[in-house]
Amino acid sequence: MNYDQLGHEAVARIAAAGDLDALESLRVEFLGKQGSVSALLKTLGGLTPEERKETGPKIHGLRESVSDALAARKADLEAAEMEARLATETIDLTLPAPDTPKGSIHPVSQVMDELAEIFADLGFAVATGPEIEDDWHNFTALNMPESHPARAMHDTFYFPEQAGAEKRMLLRTHTSPVQVRTMLERGAPLRIIAPGRVYRSDSDATHTPMFHQVEGLVIDRDIHLGHLKWTLETFLKAFFERDDIVLRLRPSYFPFTEPSVEVDVGFALETGPDGKARRVLGGSGDAPGHAWMELLGSGMVNARVIEFAGLDPSEWQGFAFGVGVDRLAMLKYGMDDLRAFFDGDVRWLRHYGFSAFDQPTLSGGVGARP
Length: 370
Ligand code: PHE
Hints:
With 370 residues, the protein is of the alpha+beta class. It folds into two domains: 3-88; 107-354, BirA Bifunctional Protein, domain 2 (2-Layer Sandwich). It contains twelve helices and ten strands. The chain has helices spanning 3-15, 20-31, 36-43, 49-88, 107-121, 135-138, 149-152, 177-186, 225-240, 303-308, 325-333, 346-352; strands spanning 125-126, 132-134, 169-171, 190-199, 210-220, 247-254, 257-271, 277-281, 290-301, 317-324. The strands form two sheets. Strands 1, 4, 5, 6, 7, 8, 9 and 10 form an eight-stranded mixed β-sheet that branches. Strand 7 and strand 8 form a beta hairpin. Helix 2 (20-31) runs antiparallel to helix 4. The longest helix has 40 residues, at 49-88. It starts with a helix and ends in an 18-residue tail after the last helix. It binds phenylalanine.
């Protein structure tokens, strides 16, 4: 067989291929599974060693020149195609650009940014802790020993008990375990807020199984209730962007604070533009047309908690508070169903979400700060 001639013919046909489709059929014809050159390569197996020495290089040479020719023609055709496109295609730069959908900042993230910013001005750092907690940090160290009735009030999601495990694992029911962790890690003095997710087995218009809290903690010498009251007033006025926020402090009970203080905020009931009644914060709840709303729990950190956290309560004391972040967002931005926060409905997010670029309120948003 005249392999040289075969090669010349193949290379000539390849060089004459008019487009990439024609070139592809030629590739299949020569080098495909059933291709003629492939078939020749297969015959090598049936030859004697001498015959193979003589014919092998010729067939391999043929295959090489065919695949070189295919590659060269392919490059030429592609270059020609690109040139043709460049010659005919034009882009009209005067047309408006297509609209790119933009994401928005979720109200919870927005409010967390605002909180971090307000408390940073007051000298508080942001602390975090795990959402999968153990019962020691979530309860025991917060002065709720096993069988303490307050444990039952928390509707806790427990993980299955593990044989031999010292501590029972759970989804933290509040951000207060971060108090204990931060005191143990950093000692005193301390000024922190701890925003984050918490979990309780509860679901209706104002409760979701997962929600957000922010914990505040100050540990120092000579801290008293006056510091707590001033801090909460300053924070809430800055957060709601109103100077007429009026607080009412009521005696309460939490195992981890003593004394414990429930904080109410005064509001007026007004009719909104949609005809629906809405709560507008500000003014004393005792004024005509006003009422009180329970807003957060707080108190002086219980000496036992300070001890559990490895500090000497005769030297260090402080205050703590815990408030629902989602609730703060609802009050400030006027949403009425907590469940919508976590449905992931894009229409809701477009309506209530915040632009990362033009902030309507005091926070620049994390991404927008210089
Ligand atoms: N951890 C409490 C709760 O989730 C709130 C709280 C925090 C109360 C700190 C007092 C002090 O209900």
